[in-house]
Write a structure and sequence with these properties.
single chain, about 600 residues, alpha+beta, Alkaline Phosphatase, subunit A, Arylsulfatase, C-terminal domain, Jelly Rolls, 3 domains, 10-stranded mixed beta sheet, 6-stranded mixed beta sheet, 11 helices
């Protein structure tokens, strides 16, 4: 009888567990999927839904036609800050993001991301594209809430065809045009997770330069097709405009592929889709007559399209005039999905769900601040105070052509006081950045790219923009390449240098040291691939580096203690005219 009771109890426990699991799965199935698509350097005026007749973007436009369109949606003047604000719902300086390269783009580790919130709620999470908020673990997307990552972590990439990519922390080679490749991986993720809720983030990296796009898109843009021009047409470079618009049409085609996948899997009705961009246009081109472009805190530099579709919840054709911004997306999406945010830091954004679903007639007045490099402007529903303290009525004067600060002294004073208070509260968090580049987080590779290093002596970067550069002109034993690092875990590490070297210069010996510990290697084999990129450029890349394939060169092992140190690469002997070109140093902790 006793054994029978125990068996009966065990059976009840199993039944309860099965029931609980089924209930949990049913609850998860009721939660909407989320697909967020982010363009890079696409202006508000780069869509046909916003009045640009130079191009056609039917798939992107359909999101606003079948859902909601925000008339006044604001992001940051440049890339990494917008990404940080989307991820956290907080103004970017609060999270330590104050630049776009050399470590200034990293999102502080005590910030909690939207991916962490959805992952904690049982969602599959994936990101496919340009991350731009940190490279080394634990800044890497796989350590910030994303189960799956495919893309690149830098601010921009130097070539868009068959390019080097990061797949969950490993270096791999992509296939085809980069936007098509990223979309392929996002489609695979959606397919694999079709039976559970997913959060899919697709941060594309176009129409950011270099200006490259497949022929079938570029050939649709003869110069004669570009009828609408920038408000100061003499500033516009038509070759760049043509390619930028072709790149946007390529994005639109890929957005169509994503939407078709949702339809094919019968997921469209239960998926929230968001489309926006990270800053104003990267060149002077049509942008609705607004003042400013990328890098500017004026309207044209920070106004972005934002389209949101959620069938059955957002009425088709909804137009939202209230100002909103990237800081609002985390609270909005977690609210609409019934997901609790993680972390306790106060948000700067607010949930836009009442505006999207018609749940509220009242919407309180607010201010949205735009910042870049200590330049701050503030936007209310009607006015913008620019970085110089000039006031513009954005309803009567959307092009910011007439300063009315003397006519509206009370409003001007109120907004100037608000900017001063915002600066005092928010900007001190980036006054001094003492973060080192981290080595040895868990079992992951530590990649120290050239953009994060400091050239010393005659060593130079391959281009003026650090993001996709490599080190070259290493010709002297007095030259140094250094990275300011912190070793998180003591232990044995393998070290390799990704290099190129022509046959005539083979034979140099070099040393890699971290503090007092060092290992030595020799350039024993030639590897001298050609530069790539120029053959695909549609317009001048303005000093950005071309790229080439680099090969790992084993430099031995080192036993590293925990703590801060300087990682230094130097030459001991140079029989030829140079040592080698260096793309990155890679360390991996041994078990």
């Amino acid at each position: 009888m006793h054994i029978h009771n125990r068996r009966h109890l065990a059976a009840l426990v199993v039944v309860c567990l099965i029931g609980c699991l089924a209930a949990a799965r049913a609850a998860a199935a009721e939660r909407p999927n989320v697909l967020v698509i982010l363009a890079d350097d696409q202006g508000w005026g780069d869509l046909s839904i916003d009045g640009n007749t130079n191009l056609e973007t039917p798939n992107i436009d359909s999101l606003g036609q079948d859902g909601a369109l925000f008339e006044r949606f604001f992001v940051c003047p440049v890339c990494a800050p917008t990404r940080a604000e989307f991820l956290t719902g907080r103004y970017h300086p609060r999270g330590g993001v104050h630049g776009v390269t050399t470590g200034a783009e990293r999102l502080n580790l005590d910030e909690k991301t939207i991916a962490e919130a959805f992952k904690a709620a049982g969602y599959a999470t994936g990101a496919f594209g340009k991350w731009h908020n940190g490279t080394q673990f634990p800044y890497h997307p796989n350590a910030r809430g994303f189960d799956e990552y495919y893309g690149f972590t830098s601010g921009h990439w130097g070539h868009y065809f068959d390019t080097v990519m990061d797949h969950n922390g490993e270096i791999v080679t992509g296939r085809g045009f980069i936007i098509d490749d990223l979309t392929d991986h996002a489609l695979d993720f959606i397919q694999e997770n079709r039976e559970r809720p997913f959060f899919c983030y697709v941060p594309y990296n176009t129409p950011h330069s270099p200006f490259q796009v497949p022929d079938r898109f570029y050939d649709r843009f003869p110069e004669s097709r570009v009828k609408l021009r920038n408000r100061n047409p003499e500033q516009e470079e038509l070759d760049k405009t043509r390619c930028a618009l072709a790149m946007v049409e390529n994005i639109d085609w890929n957005v169509g592929r994503l939407l078709e996948k949702l339809d094919a899997l019968k997921l469209a009705d239960n998926t929230i889709v968001v489309y926006f961009s990270d800053n104003g246009p990267n060149t002077w081109r049509f942008n609705g007559g607004m003042k400013g472009k990328k890098g500017s805190t004026d309207e044209g530099g920070v106004r972005s399209p934002c389209l949101v579709r959620w069938p059955g919840h957002i009425r088709p054709g909804t137009v939202i005039p209230q100002i909103a911004g990237a800081i609002d997306l985390l609270p909005t999406l977690t609210d609409m999905a019934g997901v609790e945010r993680v972390g306790s830091k106060p948000l700067d954004g607010r949930s836009l769900k009442p505006l999207l679903t018609g749940g509220s007639d009242a919407w309180p007045e607010r201010m949205i601040f735009s910042h870049w490099n200590k330049r701050v402007s503030v936007r209310t529903q009607q006015y913008r105070l620019d970085m110089k303290g000039a006031l513009y009525d954005m309803v009567a004067d959307p092009g910011q052509d007439r300063d009315i600060s003397s006519e509206k002294p009370e409003i001007t004073a109120r907004l100037r006081d608000a900017v001063a208070a915002w600066k005092a509260e928010v900007l001190p968090s980036i006054a001094k950045d003492d973060r080192r580049f981290l080595i040895g987080f868990d079992e992951h590779l530590t990649i120290l790219p050239a953009r994060d290093g400091v050239p010393g002596g005659k060593v130079q970067r391959s281009g003026k923009a650090p993001n996709c550069s490599y080190f070259t002109n290493w010709t002297s034993t007095e030259d140094r390449i250094t990275w300011d690092v912190e070793v998180l875990q003591a232990g044995e590490y393998t070290v390799s240098v990704y290099y190129t070297c022509p046959a005539a210069d083979v034979g140099s010996t070099y040393e890699v040291s971290v503090g007092d510990t060092s290992t030595r290697g020799r350039v024993s084999e030639a590897y001298d691939p050609p530069l790539r990129g120029a053959e695909a450029d549609r317009a001048d890349r303005g000093g950005e580096s071309y790229v080439k394939e680099f090969r790992p060169l084993a430099a031995g092992t080192m036993r590293l203690p925990r703590g801060r140190a300087m990682l230094t690469v130097r030459a001991l002997e140079i029989p030829g005219s140079q040592v080698m070109d260096v793309r990155c140093v890679v360390l991996k902790k041994l078990p």
